[in-house]
Specification:
Mean pLDDT: 93
Structural class: alpha+beta
């Protein structure tokens, strides 16, 4: 399995790791700071630095799959094309330094946190999302119209308030007893370990802005999101409204 260091600390930018295997899908490491595509968030990019100083460019990160096509606990670092010679020099057991494209990751963290704020402003189930470095989109299960300027103003207010974000866990039993915590209709929190990772924005009680299971990467405080705005609202179907976030000029 791959030890996912980003779960405990999203601000880690690099780590030393040992190669577990190399195949036609990419490079699997024993530990990584790279987030794999999942939960709507894009996979990380960056480099694997070799002992001799050469670097392998990583174009994407994905969860490995078994013979049945189901995700496993290993993460595949997908190399960019045209690096066959470098990849041929790698062997299982070799040590590399996995280094993120930090600027890109930080944009993902900011947008992902902003999407949680949007869930506070639009308190209805979510039936799809996509978090990229350049935009975020969230599909809400609803029929009522939404106001772009009002949502942008609400996001600005929550960002300026500098609400802290806390990573925690709840048990499977606690989640089962509080099904409303799961706001996504399309993606269920991973189970099987006995606990589920949570993201809380704000404090307890009336000070709480958002609290839900989430495995993605986020900033530590809403002020770090910076200036974002609602760039588009679309009616995707009779029961779906899509909100697109972008960076404010």
């Amino acid at each position: 399995m791959t030890d996912d260091l980003f779960r405990a600390d999203a601000y880690l930018r690099a780590c030393e790791a040992r190669i577990l295997r190399i195949d036609d899908t990419g490079v699997v490491l024993d530990r990584t700071v790279f987030y794999p595509l999942g939960g709507g968030q894009a996979g990380d990019t960056g480099v694997l630095a070799l002992a001799d100083g050469r670097e392998i460019a990583i174009a994407d990160t994905r969860k490995a799959k078994n013979e049945e096509g189901q995700p496993t606990a290993e993460f595949v670092h997908v190399p960019a094309p045209g690096q066959a010679e470098l990849l041929a020099a790698l062997n299982p057991g070799d040590t590399v330094t996995a280094r993120l494209d930090w600027e890109r990751r930080h944009r993902l963290m900011r947008f992902h946190t902003a999407s949680h704020l949007l869930c506070h402003l639009v308190p209805v189930p979510v039936n799809g999302c996509s978090i990229t470095p350049d935009y975020a989109r969230i599909d809400f299960h609803m029929t009522d119209p939404l106001d772009k300027e009002a949502l942008t103003a609400g996001l600005a207010r929550l960002v300026e308030a500098a609400h802290p974000l806390t990573v925690g866990v709840i048990t499977d039993e606690e989640l089962d007893a509080n099904p409303a915590l799961v706001k996504s209709m399309s993606v269920q929190p991973p189970r099987g370990t006995g606990t589920v990772r949570t993201i809380r924005i704000g404090g307890d009680g009336d000070a709480q802005i958002d609290f839900q299971p989430c495995g993605g990467t986020h900033v530590a405080n809403t002020a770090e999101i910076g200036a974002v705005m609602v760039t588009k609202i679309e009616k995707k179907s009779a029961n779906s409204r899509r909100v697109v976030l972008g960076w404010a000029a």
